[in-house]
Each structure stands twice: as structure tokens, then as C-alpha cells.
Design brief:
This protein is mainly beta. The chain contains 4 helices and 11 strands; from the N terminus they run H-H-E-H-E-E-E-E-E-E-E-H-E-E-E. It has a 10-stranded antiparallel barrel. Strand 5 and strand 6 form a beta hairpin. It is globular.
Length: 182
């Protein structure tokens, strides 16, 4: 089987990797398959356009204290992330772009992120969005604040996405503990 590449390790400057929290390093680079479980608080607008867009992008529905399981499958050219929330499943494919950015595909949308170390955490900075391969004007992309770090000894995540005309599409924050690495 061809070797796998941990995307986050290749997209961050080599000097930054050792500065990350050990839990962050383990989640983003160890093993071919990582399985983790934890809890997430999910928020978002409840109007029809927000609900429909979340469904199209396979984003979770709002609800506090949702159990979450995450499986990361590392392949030679990409990572497949499957997130199972209380009432929904969110799947995305992540790969390194030729532009040195992380490209995350959610249904018909591909988000382009620059990754940066912030202390012992990783910040994902949105650089652009493509819909069905066509770039969207920056004004339509909204804001995505995303951070993965460590809190209370566990892997912690904090994502907040807001779009013009929609408001808060999705925000989810919580923690994971790694259950299994293969």
C-alpha cells in the first residue's frame, strides 16, 4: 500500500510542528486511521435558507452537548474526515492544493485555508471558496474562524462560519479524545 501523508504536517512550516500541543500533533499526523469521540455544542441560524444550506453541505444541526465521533482516513493524496453528530453526519475530503493551502471539499463547495500556528494550536484562515469549481467573489465567502488546539488535556476545536444574507451558518465547539489509531 502506498504511504500516507499527514496533510497538516506538510502544510505547516517544519519549525512550527514541534511547537504544537502533543494532542494536536497526534490528531493531525499519527496513523493511517484515527478514531476519536467527544462532545460538541453546535449553533446556527434556524431559518430555512440556513437549514437547507447546512443539509447541502452535510453540516450538523444546532444542539448543545451533542456526542460526536470523528474518523480520519489518511490516503496518499488526501484525508477523508467523517464526523458523526447526534442527528447528522458531516463528510469532507481534505488535500494539499498546488497553492500550498489546505483544500476542504464539502459537497459542491471547496474551502481554501492557509494554516498557521498560533501558540500550540492551528488556525485555519479562509482564503477563498469555490462552488462547483468556480471561484466565488470574496464578498460572498463570509468569515470562517477555525482553530484546533488543546483544552484540559484533550483535543479541542472551535469553528464559526458566517455568511452574508444567512448570518451564522454553523458554529461548533467541543473536544475529542483519541480512541484508536491504526
Amino acid at each position: 500500500m502506498p504511504s500516507t501523508t499527514a496533510l497538516f504536517r506538510t502544510l505547516l512550516p517544519p519549525a512550527d510542528w514541534p511547537q504544537l500541543a502533543p494532542t494536536v500533533q497526534r490528531m493531525h499526523a499519527e496513523g493511517r486511521i484515527v478514531q476519536a469521540s467527544g462532545e460538541a455544542d453546535v449553533a446556527g441560524e434556524t431559518h430555512l435558507p440556513a437549514r437547507l444550506l447546512r443539509r447541502l453541505l452535510t453540516l450538523p444541526e444546532p444542539g448543545a452537548g451533542q456526542a460526536i465521533t470523528v474518523t480520519i482516513e489518511r490516503h496518499p493524496t488526501h484525508e477523508r474526515w467523517s464526523r458523526h453528530f447526534l442527528r447528522s453526519q458531516m463528510h469532507s475530503t481534505l488535500r494539499a492544493g498546488h497553492d500550498g493551502q489546505l483544500h476542504e471539499r464539502l459537497g459542491p463547495v471547496t474551502l481554501h485555508f492557509a494554516l498557521h500556528r498560533d501558540g500550540d494550536a492551528i488556525e485555519w484562515q479562509l482564503q477563498g471558496v469555490r462552488l462547483l469549481g468556480m471561484p466565488l467573489p470574496r464578498a460572498l465567502c463570509g468569515t470562517v474562524l477555525s482553530r484546533s488546539g488543546m483544552r484540559d488535556g484533550r483535543y479541542a476545536f472551535d469553528i464559526d462560519t458566517r455568511l452574508p444574507g444567512i448570518g451564522r451558518l454553523i458554529a461548533y465547539r467541543g473536544w475529542l479524545e483519541i480512541d484508536h489509531v491504526a
